[in-house]
Design a protein that fits this description.
With 97 residues, the chain is α+β, with helices and mostly antiparallel strands. It is built from 2 helices and 6 strands; from the N terminus they run H-H-E-E-E-E-E-E. The chain is elongated. The chain binds zinc ion (ZN).
Amino acid sequence: MPVKKKEEPPAAAPKKEVAPAPPVEAAAPAPVAKKPEKKREKKHRQEKGVRAMYKVEGDKITRARPTCERCGPGYFMAEHHDRYTCGHCGFTRYKQK
Ligand SMILES: [Zn+2]
């Protein structure tokens, strides 16, 4: 039995050079099924990462958030509407009015 190095699947052969169809039909069978795109209102993107923790003014930086009292400098606390929390140790400090 002769061994063929490249065996093409039989389904691919007729697809190759059979395209006598009019251009209208040729464009119809698109391989990618398009779903109707949901329009999401883009919220103002909140700056994330380390950049969000500092504000650069000229050649000085100010920290935008307080640091954790337990963990020390380097551990910024997350800002919530009524409190700051540390993600490292769970320390919570409520905002004072
Ligand atoms: Zn902490």
